[in-house]
Amino acid sequence: ALHPFLTGPRAGKAGQNLKYDLLVLERVGLKPAPLTFDTLIAEWLCDPGSRNLGLKEMAAHYLDVSMTHIEELIGRGKNQRSMAEVPVASAAPYAAADAEVILRLMPILARKMEERGAARLFHDLEMPLIEVLAGMEREGIGLDVEFLAGMSGDLAQRMSVIEQEIYQACGQTFNINSTQQLSSILFDTLKLEPPDRRKKTASGHYSTSADVLEELRGRHQVVDLVLEYRELSKLRSTYTEALPQSINPATGRVHTSFSQTGSVTGRLASSEPNLQNIPTRSELGRLVRKGFIASPGSVLLSVDYSQIELRILAHMAQDEAMLQAFRAGHDIHAATAAAIFNIPLDQVSKDMRRMGKGINFGLVYGQSAFGLSRSTGLTLAEAEDFIKAYFQQFPGVKQYLDGIRRLAARQGYVETLLGRRRYFPNLPNPSNINVNMRNREEREAINAPIQGSAADMIKLAMLRVPAALEKQNCPARLLLQVHDELVLETPQDHLHETARLVKTIMENAMQLSIPLATEAKFGQNWGAMEPLNI
Fold first, then answer.
1. Do the beta carbons of residue 418 and residue 125 sit within 8 Å?
2. 266 vs 454: CA distance, rounded Å
3. Does an H or E element contain 6, and which?
4. DSSP string for residues in 417-445
5. What count of other Cβ atoms lies within 10 Å of the Cβ of residue 319?
6. What's the CA gap between 195 and 214, in Å, rounded?
7. Contact 229, 166 (CB under 8 A)
8. CA pair distance 531, 302, nearest whole angstrom
9. What are the Cα distances from residue 59, in Å, to 62, 65, 70, 104, 106?
């Protein structure tokens, strides 16, 4: 009975968080189409930092309507029941109210999107992306359970060794996972000086948070051991132990959930499980990726943008020296170091390149001289000298960064290349905020157009990849998006064809003043990928 209404092309389908409805209805043979309006995405595009993303909040804010909360139907805590147990007589008005409120919100949000320049992004990018993301969630990715079990055992063994080393160094045993006991050991027993004596927890103990321990790193072997213990513990609990529990018994694969509205910059977020936060800087973190595998006869293909945010910065700033370095195919971090140290490119050492990289990425994130000194180990005076030398060599970047600060202070928002806005209502009214908050918002205002444009770019590529694969009758499937990287699964004999297609789409997703570059890798698992030359 519902089929003609839900699947017929005559009427557009609107909803709140439509991707969820699409996935649920598909399981009973109904694929709603066309999907034309999602109130969640519309409100988020109007204001990425909105506190009214929930339908109940939107109804109260825009319509002055107080809606029934689901807890009134299903209860809370241990007495909570399934929606399937709620009588139809109670469930029907609740569901009908949701639908009716969505219809009333649509014209209001449509007008607001027009006023805020978000309508094109909504119709051309975010709404079509719903079906692409649903397809990725449906596909899931394979998991090597035996490998993760072995890794989990190795982590537990190493944690046990570290425990004993910590106890030996302290001269006593205690609960390492207790922040209060750890605080007492570090600051009372070992007499370490807290980085900030004002930073105490509600219990009156000095904080032992990650940033505090990082500042204490190297002061005592116990600090370094605790940091390693915490990293191993997190890897074990979050990944090697939890991932196998996430396998869907019907498919034998792990199916993450992608959220379009999970960040203020436009980046996608991943949850249940989060596959975007697997650490890749440590060897053990990279090892976790080996647990993600291709099906028999297939391989995983990863295509990653190369230095995309710096390319976007060069394009936006129109700095001739930076543009020229990219056009010449130079290593941008080495080129930056050569410019700052005023030496030929072939004389740049590894340490010099590291400094160039630190400054490049620091500037993308609006970092000050103080922030740069903390991240690179330079003194504050040295960091100031390096930034001064950087801006002398790349004056266009300096003009761009100063311009963004002025623009955000004047109009209260900044935009990506596609017009995605991030609002900073406090900046035009400096009396409303303190210096620290203003500095933080200025840093975010500098970063938002760059990171947001990178997010828009990979979304454009994601929209085009599935359609292009289908057009070429290529059986590869898009599985994951992790920041600047797309991960696909493809039969071995279609690897080169798929890689060529995806690289072409990604490198032409947007036209910048300099070429976009990608790197393709392949392998039986996500952690042991080899470069693919096409």
1. yes
2. 9
3. helix 3-7
4. TT--EEE-TTTT-GGGS-HHHHHHHHHHH
5. 20
6. 10
7. yes
8. 9
9. 6, 5, 15, 9, 11
Helix axis angle, 350-364 to 332-341, nearest 10°:
100
Return the HEC string of 503-520: HHHHHCCCCCCCCCCEEE
In the chain, the N- to C-terminal Cα span, in Å, equals 51
Q: Confirm if 311 and 325 have CB atoms less than 8 A apart.
A: no
Distance CA 60, CA 520 (A): 48
Instruction: Identify whether the C-beta of residue 484 lies closer than 8 Å to the C-beta of residue 305.
Output: yes
Q: Which residues contact 300 (CB under 8 A, 6 or more apart)?
A: 292, 293, 294, 479, 487, 488, 489, 522, 523, 524, 525, 526, 529
C-beta of residue 337 within 8 angstroms of C-beta of residue 355 = yes
Rounded to whole angstroms, what are the CA distances from 394 to 310, 469, 522?
A: 13, 41, 37
By the 10 Å C-beta count (0-12 exposed, 13-18 middle, 19+ buried), 18 is classed as buried
CB neighbours of 306 closer than 8 A, spacing ≥ 6? 517, 518, 519
Shortest CA distance to 363 belongs to which of 279, 455, 442? 442
Nearest-angstrom CA–CA distance, 107 and 118: 14
Residue 36 tokens read as: 């034309």
3-state secondary structure at position 205:
coil
Residue that the structure tokens 């995605």 belong to: 420
Residue 348 reports pLDDT greater than 80? yes
Preceding peptide of 273 cis, ω within 30°:
yes
The reply to whether the predicted model has a pTM over 0.90 is yes
Instruction: Name the 3-class secondary structure at 301.
Output: strand
CB atoms within 10 A of CB 410: 10
Q: What is the DSSP letter of 196?
A: -
Q: Which tens digit of pLDDT belongs to each residue from 138-173? A: 999 999 999 999 999 999 999 999 999 999 999 999
Kindly report, residue by residue over 244-266, the tens digit of the pLDDT: 999 999 999 999 999 999 999 99
Number of H helices, E strands in the chain: 23, 15
Beta pairing partners, 482: 485
Contact criterion met (CB below 8 Å) for 468 and 505:
yes
Tokens 């053990």 -> residue? 284
What's phi and psi for 480, nearest 5 deg? -140, 155
Looking at the predicted structure, is the pLDDT value of residue 65 above 90?
yes
- Which residues partner with 292 through β-bridges? 143
Greatest CA separation for the chain: 78
Instruction: Note the pLDDT of residue 279.
Output: 84
Q: How far apart are CA 189 and CA 171, in angstroms?
A: 9
Only one residue has tokens 């191993």, namely 232
* Pairing status of strand 257-259 against strand 413-415: unpaired
How is residue 412 written in tokens?
């209260």
What kind and span of H or E run contains 162? helix 145-170
* Helix (H), strand (E) at residue 258: strand 257-259
User: Residue 222 and residue 169: Cα distance in Å, rounded?
Assistant: 7
**Angstrom distance (rounded) from CA 20 to CA 106:** 19
